[in-house]
Amino acid sequence: MPRCPGQDQRFWKPDDIFEVECPVCKFSVEFWKDEPQVKCPSCKQLIVNPKLDLGCAKWCKHAEECLGQISGQEKSNLSTRLIESLRQIAEADQSVVRSSLEVLRYAEKIQLEEGGEPLVVKASAILSHIYEVPTQPELETQTDNAAESLDLLIHNILEKQGIKKEFRDHVCRILTACRDDKSMDLLEFKIIWDACHLAQLGQHTSTPDGTETDIAWKTETGRILAKERFEN
Asked: Is residue 207 a part of any domain in this protein?
């Protein structure tokens, strides 16, 4: 499977790997440009990448849908904007953001190897924990159903970023299936399902024969990443 050139390290420049000072303990933490967040080796604080660059704009055929106009001229990365939207909605509960970024980290790795629609995978990963956010008051007047209210929230977030309805519907179906623990025969769903479970594994310290590893991985890359997690 061809790798996305924007994330292929053969195309990287020296400053695409850089260091950031941990805001808590001041330890120098190394970042790669496409890492959404890194855990500080010293104090274990999760640090968000201040220079997040997924490198898709120059290469992806969907770049125009992933990039929106700002001030009529500048373009901004979809992932960065969605993360900021999630951060604003989650407000004080930044654990929702941290969990979503962890899902995004794994989803990107799986998507690069397995394929799938990058826009749908990235958006679904970033909004994977949106159901943990309290129902928005402005949406309660539009529907009495909590699930429908959250689905509407997802559509609103994506619509504001100029994402077409077919992609919004796709993301919504994937997140609804994940929330309801239902399966879908769609590659993007399989990627998000594996990424969510890999992120959950990262919160445990079980051994390779522990219950957390008894998961029917839906992609080969997900299975390999789970194996690597316990070997390292």
From this structure: yes
Which residues have a Cβ under 8 Å from the Cβ of 157 and sit 6 or more positions away?
Answer: 82, 85, 86, 89, 127, 130
Q: Each residue of 161-209: pLDDT tens digit?
A: 888 888 899 999 999 898 888 889 999 999 999 999 999 886 554 444 4
Q: Which domain holds residue 180?
A: 78-231
Please count the other Cβ atoms lying within 10 Å of the Cβ belonging to residue 99. 20
Question: Residue 44 falls within a domain, yes or no?
Answer: no
Tell me which of 150 and 58 has the higher pLDDT.
150
The pTM is what? 0.64
Helix locations, the chain, DSSP H: 63-66, 78-90, 95-114, 118-126, 137-140, 146-160, 165-179, 187-201, 220-231
